[in-house]
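ESCALATION

Customer reports they have been waiting on this structure for their group meeting. Please prioritize. Original submission:
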Amino acid sequence: MKFSKTHSLVIKSVFHSEKGEEGASLLDIIGYVDYVNHAILTYQEFTESVESAKACGLVEINEGKLKTTDTFKNWKYGLTQKLSIEKENIELQSYMNMNCKKVEKDNGVPAFSVGEFNAVVEEYLKESRKPNKV
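Update from on-call: job pushed to the front of the queue and completed.
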């Protein structure tokens, strides 16, 4: 089974949301995906994408934060030219389809529970609806 745009978008959201060694929070990842894709991830999309990326060695989880690995960074910085978001997603999907096995259903405990994920989505939606003060 092939990887989807969502898989690559989640991995790239981790990369673009990382705060140094601290990594990326679930809130930042949800916000980035919404900003780029104009949609909120479902729990299933998120966990399948993260578990597949972990199995492929592209992301890791430490203390509730996600980080891209050197494997991902080597792929990203090895691109011969700067690509649009969409073209880079296609390239990452291609890389994953050639080098990784998709995790259909994780047999272990997901890194984030449904309740935790839903609470963060609610927090994001609440924050994003606040009017901007100028």
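Sent to customer with the following note: The helical segments are 5-17, 26-37, 43-55, 70-77, 85-99, 114-128.
Escalation resolved.
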